[in-house]
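User: Second chain of the day. Same drill as before.
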Amino acid sequence: MDGRRLMALFACFVLAFTVVLGRCAVVGANGSYAQAAQGQLVTSLALGSDRGNFYDAQGVPLTGQGKRYYALCIPGESSYARLFDAVSESAQDLLYTRRNSMQPFLVPLSSDMTGLGIYTYEVPERYLDVPIASHLLGYLNGDGEGVAGLELAYEDVLHRDAGSYVQCVTNAQGTLLEGQEPVLTTPEQTGLGVRLTLSEPVQRACEGIARSGMTQGCILVLECGTGRVLASVSLPDFDPGAVEKSIAADDTSLLNRALCTFNVGSVFKPVLAASALERNMDWFTHDCKGYVEVDGHVYRCAMGIHHGLVNLRGALEQSCNCYFVRLGQQLGGEAIWEMADRLGFGQTIYLSGGMKCAAGTLPGADVLENTGQLAGLSFGQGQLTAAPLQVAAFMDAIAAGGLWHTPFVVEGLVDEATGALSQPAEPAPAQQVLNAEDAAYLRDMLESVVSEGIGGDAATEAQTAAGKTGTAQTGQFTEEGEELLNFWFAGFWPADDPEVTVVVMQDGLAEAEISSAELFSRVCDALHYLELGGKDEPAQGAADEGAEKR
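Assistant: Same format as last time:
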């Protein structure tokens, strides 16, 4: 290679080097490039999405009041070693798998560890430490979306895109840049929540009574004459923050028993009584010998008790199956079906936002042409099934002077910034399903079930109570051959001037440890101490006069 070529090649190298050097100078002088380079090292860590909350009728928050903590783990620091023994097993797994991570990450904690020099962030826990009304509220999936209960029914209202997050500026190894502290950003709380008809103290009282007195079943409390659900409890309960445990257990804890259907039993007998009163058949009597035969099939009273000569009042007081079989024959299947249909049996009840109870089974008039089917329905057996919510609504109609109110659980939407009710719910209009005089007489007879009959366990410390017991056969048996039964009590309190309608149901048991009537009594006593129904002199309305006339 001659000297000219060597010089030309050298000149090319110098030119190329000059161009590269000039380009570097331009890039270095341009602030946007520096910002872009820094942006590659900014990490945003979400602390969970914001979500609208549920409130009771007085505005008490039912969600979003718990606390949870997250620790910020930074590569190259000692947070891994300091946190490992202080977190749950699942969090330990997270720490282990990400111990060599080149980016900061968050680890859930049970307490604040700021004092140990660890960046700790407190965020609202969706569900309370002791969850409330779990079956009504429902639960969320891993993405924070409602998948059950009112969480699902009001997903469109409660869902929000923005949530709290931590922003870190780090170098390529994931270590915080000097002088760059993590920044917590929390969006301003705006949007809508959902105000319920529930009363937080009444709900808590019923939950405590249920847990102390039953293993599985439900308690429902309605405000008499409005349809507002004041409390709804279902057992066994579940933890809405750890639903996977109930799924793994494969038990029935995720079922909302208040909305499921069950064999009803004798709580259905007031339906026949209402039909008889409407047809002026309260004169009907029967000499009960403990059993009655219909077309070769024998139906018995509980334990074969011989009640003797009983009228409608006495048959309700003693829950005489034989009387109601004969009364059913007198009324006929069409009359019974018509009254039961009017009182809401066999019909879906929509609580709010698409949440509903199952319709259950009400045998049609054609089915009841069969004498056996008619006999079974007459004391609440056979094909009949109903949800506790349906039973509560029908009993409430008796307490409310014959007016049937659709139960509902949402008062409306609430502006979370101001607490104002922005979109009140519009309850369905009441329906007159019984005349006031018949409802008053039936109410008086149901009071005597408690004061004179087999419902004595339902008697309360203050005021008087009214209602009906029920023990329903299910056709299911234990391995030892004992039949599993459903134990009911449905009634209202105070009897003379009802303020609440209460249904207690325990399902699938060979024997109830505490009777449903006694649990009803405990609920009413708790309501008395909460100053519901504390009137000294119950009012006597015109409807009560109808009871005296008979």
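DSSP finds 18 helices and 25 strands in the chain.

User: Great, on to the next one.
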